Amino acid sequence: MVEARRVQGSVLKHMVEAINEMSVNCANFNFSRAGFSLLAMDPTQTAMAEIFLRSDIERKLACCSKDSCAVVCVIAQDLISHFMMNLVDIDTKPVLIHSEAQYYHAIVKMPSAKFSRICTDLSIFGDTVSIEVTEEGVGFSTKRDIGTSIIFCWHNTSVHKADEEATAIEMTQTVSLNFGLTFLNSFTKATPLSNTVTIFLSNQLHLPVVFQYQIGEKGHLRFYLKPIKPEY
């Protein structure tokens, strides 16, 4: 049995809602002294979500011997809800995750609300978005028979802008990759969790792109997405 009591249940609620958009059927939970983590992959194995919440922001974190079920207790001001979940063994291989900056050729940090609006607006024109990062900024584009839509965000770290309002770019190479907009729009459900989103991109197509929502000092929510391979 595992018992975890959180100070702010809304944080975990928004995380689960964001992952639910990926149509996840099962997830791997891990409890340790460092904290609570969750890994979940969509049925097509194109996208994966990773949750990490530090243990020192938990009111109580206790791990007992193995059991066949887990109990989630949600306590509101005048209501207590209990949910019992059956645990299952998932036969999966360990997933190697690279989220360190040295593995990526471009890193974009921008307001999460702006990123959400861009994904919503581009969905009108197409199902696939091209993200291109240059020294000048980051461009988002999509095209369809009815036309082409391009949204460009300049690299801007003006002293007059707060950190969560600026678009900052670090890069060693120009990067241009294509992604399914359906996945990106599902990731933006995590916007209430963080004022910013950081995107890690690499020209090595075997590396998934990382969309990271940092939740203050509590932890983070990361989405990993495979780029669409270009057709030659």
TrEMBL record:
Residues 1-63 form the Proliferating cell nuclear antigen PCNA N-terminal domain. It comes from the Eukaryota. One of its GO terms (biological process) is translesion synthesis. The keyword DNA-binding applies. One of its GO terms (cellular component) is PCNA complex. Belongs to the PCNA family. SUPFAM superfamilies: DNA clamp. This is Proliferating cell nuclear antigen. Residues 102-227 form the Proliferating cell nuclear antigen PCNA C-terminal domain. InterPro entries: DNA_clamp_sf, Pr_cel_nuc_antig, Pr_cel_nuc_antig_C, Pr_cel_nuc_antig_N. Keywords: DNA-binding. Gene3D superfamilies: 3.70.10.10, DNA Polymerase III, subunit A, domain 2. One of its GO terms (molecular function) is DNA binding. The keyword Nuclease does not apply.
